[in-house]
Design a protein that fits this description.
InterPro entries: Dimeric_a/b-barrel, Rham/fucose_mutarotase. This is L-rhamnose mutarotase. It is a single chain. The protein is 33% helix and 22% strand. The protein is an alpha+beta fold. The chain is globular, with a radius of gyration of 14 Å. It has a single domain, classed as Alpha-Beta Plaits (2-Layer Sandwich). The longest helix is centred in the last third of the chain and has 10 residues. It is built from four helices and three strands, in the order E-H-H-E-E-H-H.
Length: 106
């Protein structure tokens, strides 16, 4: 099982709205994530907009590719893109760059 952690930056003027959007994630998006192999997926948001994502999956590249193949993900990413800073033309899911794990207490 791979443990994946990534960072993104939510725009300061959109923090409350971003939180609200994640209180009602579309059922189809939740289903697609599960079917693509995303497990134990969490998002943590710091007051300054730093977003820390964590998930577990058998194969992160395969899990991302499975999501990229879904229509619901394309619609979700299009709606969420305006919430983020510094995407450099990428969708939010394309900007997720895994951090290197340096320690894990098993």
């Amino acid at each position: 099982m791979q443990r994946v952690c990534f960072l993104l930056k939510v725009r300061a003027d959109r923090l409350d709205e971003y939180r609200e959007r994640h209180e009602t994630v579309w059922p189809g998006m939740l289903r697609a994530l599960r079917e693509a192999g995303w497990r134990n997926y969490s998002l943590f948001l710091r007051q300054d907009g730093l977003l820390v994502g964590y998930l577990e999956t058998e194969d992160f590249e395969a899990a991302k590719a499975a999501m990229e193949a879904t229509d619901v993900n394309a619609r979700w990413q299009a709606e969420m893109a305006d919430y983020f800073e510094a995407l450099d033309g990428e969708r939010p899911d394309e900007a997720m760059r895994p951090l290197t794990e340096v320690f894990h207490l098993a």
